[in-house]
Specification:
InterPro entries: GBBH-like_N, GBBH-like_N_sf. Pfam families: GBBH-like_N. It comes from Fodinibius salipaludis. GO terms for molecular function: metal ion binding. Keywords: Iron, Metal-binding. The chain is α+β, with helices and mostly antiparallel strands. The chain has a single domain, classed as NE0471 N-terminal domain-like (2-Layer Sandwich). The protein has a three-stranded antiparallel sheet. The protein has a three-stranded antiparallel sheet with strand order 4-5-6. The radius of gyration is 13 Å and the shape is globular.
Amino acid sequence: MQSDIIPTGIEVSNGDQVLEIEWSDGHHSEYSLFGLRKNCPCVMCRGGHGNMNTFDRSLFFVEPTQHFEIEDIKQIGNHAIKIFWSDGHNNGMYQWDTLRDMCPCEECYPEQE
């Protein structure tokens, strides 16, 4: 992804269990909260520094085994957001590039089932 593509809008629906992002290039991304939480980019959730910047897009398509809610979102500089989850976790910094790279839409992830 080009680093000049940034979100122009972020909406959370805990009721629908989705976070939506409108991007500056007109793209629209919808992430299940379960998939986002399970793909938390922090070192603890990734299992160590060697697994940083890895994620599993298939988690956006599974039946959730847990219910997660977003209590707050804070922008970090001009490159990321920090999500404050209802389970008390808030260590992950979701960079714009990472969010765009893990977009589960059919255009970005044609392998989806």
